[in-house]
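ok so I'm stuck.
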Amino acid sequence: MYGYLGELQFETTDRRLQAPENIERTVTGRWETYYPNDGSRPRRIFRGADTGGFSFDMHLHQSYNDKKISDILDTITQWVNTGYAQDLVIGTKVFGYNKWIIKKATLKYTGITADGDIYYAVVTLDLEEY
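replied:
not stuck anymore, here's the structure
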């Protein structure tokens, strides 16, 4: 294992392949515009750091997972719907100053059997610091 988001582990082994890709971290500041009364140009005033963002894609294939893909996707959906905050760790580094919530999850069902079981999915997660 080389990282995790809550109970969703990132790892690559002979039996498991759950590795994130297209990893992006967003750091922003909060700015306010001040309009002076003397007719001069507006000025920007820094008001502090804003919450950070993190996004990545994860490929989930049934042949590399002990759990059913649909169960993993249901768990992710539940985290989004309940605002469940959790740590994001990659390697030994904890990212961010706080826990993370999944602001948006895009679930792409790439492979479905004739019985309707999902055997391959691509999940795009957009996280925001809590």
